[in-house]
Write the structure tokens for this entry.
Amino acid sequence: MISEYQQQLRERYLAAPVMAPPTPWRRVLDDRTPIGGLLGIGFAVHPGTGHDLVMVVSQDGHGPFDAVTGREDRPRS
């Protein structure tokens, strides 16, 4: 059971408007791309291409994603 305070926070969160991201941001992944157990994210610049990277850290591991395409940015072996 959640407290009254937690219920109020939940209601505020659910009532918040969904807005489009500001430019130059745009959605690159669909709403069905779950990242379970998300612990944190970070941002960096790819040293080779200059693209923006997003580092996702979850309970299952970590990985960099290209912020322009949404694809995982793993080194080729």
